[in-house]
Amino acid sequence: MKKLTTAEEQVMQVLWKLEKAFVKEVIEELEEPKPAYNTVSTIIRILEQKGFVGYETVGRSHKYHPLIDKDTYSNQFLKNFIGSYFSGSFEKMLSFFMEKNDIDLKEMEELMKNNK
User: Fold this and answer.
1) Separation between Cα atoms, residue 27 and residue 110, nearest integer Å
2) CATH number of 6-66
3) Residue 68 to residues 24, 26, 111: CA-CA distances in angstroms?
4) What are the domain boundaries of the chain?
5) Which of 18, 30, 54, 55 would be a feasible disulfide site paired with 62, CB 3.0-4.6 Å?
6) Which family does it belong to (predicted)?
7) Based on the number of CB atoms within 10 Å of its own CB, is 52 exposed (0-12), middle (13-18) or buried (19 or more)?
8) Which residues on adjacent β-strands are paired with residue 57?
């Protein structure tokens, strides 16, 4: 699975939220300053080429939808991140974040208990 650029990820976040949308609806959900219609349309076509987005024809327009769900992308992104920065070790990543964010073992146990 290819990594998304920041702009592509912003568009995908909107499509994951809306599930199906026309370019105009995607633009409405993006933060100010709103990008131009052609910019968003181009990003969506790139996402389509990468296999992230599909569409259905509605009249003379296209309604776009994600082909990859958010959890699948997030999981793959996290695996790549851990692989690139922590030699594939979840334990090393967890240790790093505990150290850098001053989290003690008791707090970590609480986090893990609350997320089961």
Assistant:
1) 40
2) 1.10.10.10
3) 21, 17, 28
4) 6-66, 70-114
5) 55
6) Belongs to the BlaI transcriptional regulatory family.
7) buried
8) 62
pLDDT score at 116: 66
Task: Output helix, strand, coil percentages for the chain, rounded to the nearest 5.
Answer: 60, 10, 30
Please give the biggest Cα pair distance in the chain: 58
User: Hey, what amino acid is at 110?
Assistant: E
Amino acid sitting at position 28: E
Residue 66 pairs in a beta bridge with 53
Measured CA to CA, the distance from residue 116 to residue 80 in angstroms comes to 24
| CA nearest neighbour of 7 among 75, 34, 22, 21 | 34
Q: Which two tokens stand for residue 55?
A: 């569409």
